[in-house]
Amino acid sequence: MMEQVFQRLRPIIRWAVRRPGTVLALALALSVLGVALAMRLRIDTDFSKLIPKSYPSVQALERLREMVGGESTVDVAIVSPSFEANRRFAEDLIPKALALKGEGYDEPYLGRVEYRRETEFLRKNALYFATDEELDRLEQFLQEKIEEARLKPIRSSLSWRKKRRPKRTRRSRRCRSSTRS
Q1: End-to-end CA distance of the chain, in Å?
Q2: For the residues of 84-121, what is the DSSP string, one character each?
Q3: Which label site among 17, 64, 106, 110 has the fewest CB atoms less than 10 Å from its CB?
Q4: Whole-model pTM above 0.70?
């Protein structure tokens, strides 16, 4: 089986061995053509464009887009010492962000903007916004607290006494012996 494959490929192999410059030029030309075609590729993450529009799921997604404006969000955090500077920057950014369109698309990327001073997100994710120096100080603080806790003697109020049984009285002994008989 393999011998037959090699017999059929033998003329092509001989040609490639006798003309290495031509093979190299052909490979280079195909590579350039491949790169040129790859540069034209677009990544479209909209799954509804990959499915026929007659599907109920695509129709439901289109109704959702009409009502809500889309199915994904973009969060932008603006950081500076001055809240007023942040506000001015946000007010300048909003119309520019709403005007953004992708190449070959009629609709803008963003359909609406919610503008607010969000503190809960920052509270939950504060360490992501910390500088290297702040993280180093935090690490040093935690190391000091760990060392401090390690050096403190452990004080415990554990009691290792045996539990005492209640003393037996004569009466309880008599009751017990009378029940045995």
Answers
A1: 99
A2: HHHHHHHHHHHHHHHH-B-TT-SSBS-S--------HH
A3: 106
A4: no
Q: Tokens representing 167? A: 């003393």
Residue 74, class by beta-carbon neighbours within 10 Å (0-12 exposed, 13-18 middle, 19+ buried)? Answer: exposed
Q: Which residue has the tokens 């946000």?
A: 90
User: Is pLDDT of 181 > 50?
Assistant: no
- The span from the CA of 25 to the CA of 69, in Å, is 51
Burial 107-145 (b: 16+ CB within 10 A, else e): eeebeeeeeeeeeeeeeeeeeeeeeeeeeeeeeeeeeee
- Identity of residue 179: T
Look up residue 97 and give its amino acid. Answer: A
- The chain-wide mean pLDDT, for the chain, equals 81
